[in-house]
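Person: Please work through this fold.
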Amino acid sequence: MISLKISLGYKIKILILILAFAISLQAGQLQFGHNFKNALQKAKKQNKEVMMMYSAKWCPECNYMKEVVFKDKKVSKYIQKNFIFLSLDIQNDKLPKGFDYVGIPTFFFIKDNAKLSDKIIGGDRADRFLKKLRAIK
């Protein structure tokens, strides 16, 4: 039997590498905010618009956007660079006044003065959704 002795310093280096890898995996994922007022404040500080999504847990198209489209690296990177992302559930979250919708998902693009600048109704494949985002910003 071969006995391996691993020094404490080596163990710490391995642990640091594992943690760095885990953090890098998280970095590409979108962070969903859930508070309209906080999103507006954050957007103003960062000189960005708020991208607010109305969705529901039972909505297959909403879930597709969250589980497939927003996990696309190009889409998530573009959203992180240009917007503060806010996701509100139409049944469980308080919806801000003045942002009416017909169906879900609906994406509202909001300036720091809480005024609507643009809107996308419905989801799409990652490449086409990214084109729509680029046309907005």
User: Anything to note?
Assistant: Residues 19-27 have pLDDT under 50 and may be disordered. The chain has five helices and four strands.
